[in-house]
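Table S7 (text form). Paired inputs.
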Amino acid sequence: MKRMLSLVFVLMLAACSSTMTGQKRAAEQIVQGRIAPIPGNGVVLMSMSLQSLDRDTSDATVFVQGAQGANYLYARIMTDIINAPGSEPSPAGRVYLLSLPAGEYTVSNITGSWSRHSNSMLGFDTSEYFNVPVQQKFSVRAGEVSYLGSLNLNINFQSSVTFSNEFKRDMFDLQKRYQLTDTSNIQQQLLGSQ
């Protein structure tokens, strides 16, 4: 058990640093309101929204596998939010911008944890861990920008993921965070549509 907790902690640290570095690099690629991939790379955009029985400690990491290794995309239900336009509710989650070398990739799985709150007098919470297989392939082409859609993660005793097209909401979030104003070069390559 101690080893498992140590492994989860190390993965979370790796996820945080990988996500922050990837987000920073991708944000620097927004030039005059438009995403401009660096030479040899493409940019993929996707989001992950989180719903859970536990609104305090739930977190998740998306694993994106490619020839260059893995990318870890982390989100925490209590601190991450996707800005939605108008009166549309803003869900917990995050929109990701990933600058990746051209090639074939797979969103392999999503792992994470949540706390089951105790009703006992001692008040000990139990951490629950999950691993949801995704196995969705996508291609990255040099110079292109692709929107992969939204992974909607439901975290509970039988965690599951569904896919949806939240292009309008996700572009609104990117506009708020990075001043993205021109989406004309973004192609849709939706996960779950194969």
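Next pair, protein 2 of 2.
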Amino acid sequence: MNPSVSDQLAAARRILLDLVRPHVDGEYPAALLTGVADVLAVLEQGWQRIPAFLTDDTARLRDLLARIADADVLDLPDGLRTRIAAYVAAPVPTAAALAELDAHAESGRALLAEAAPAVVAVGEHPVHDALRGYFDVRIAEFPLRPTPRA
């Protein structure tokens, strides 16, 4: 179907740069507009990879959260182990239900944010290494990458 999502993002970017930017006064507003256009370019090139990334990232996050909940050495806030167990046991939405998958991933990241201080405080421990490994992979595989300006 035309125009595709990528085509629509490209058209919005071109409108901003070709039609709007010449009428923007001031260096700072023009730089902001260029930044918005750059974000649109990143989305144009990478939006198709987001569902697969979210699916894989959520699986890794669930594994990490399960390890955190099972690590008796961690001093987790009251009730967090139970909430993590419920999250891990819940069905994972498919990539076809992208909004639901994104909401599920967001709730998992909120649990991780709550647990992270206890993981960091424990120091050298396999669960600490797993946390570091999760973020290393997440950063390496994140599908939206800006292109540096020359």
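The chain has two domains: 5-48, 49-141.
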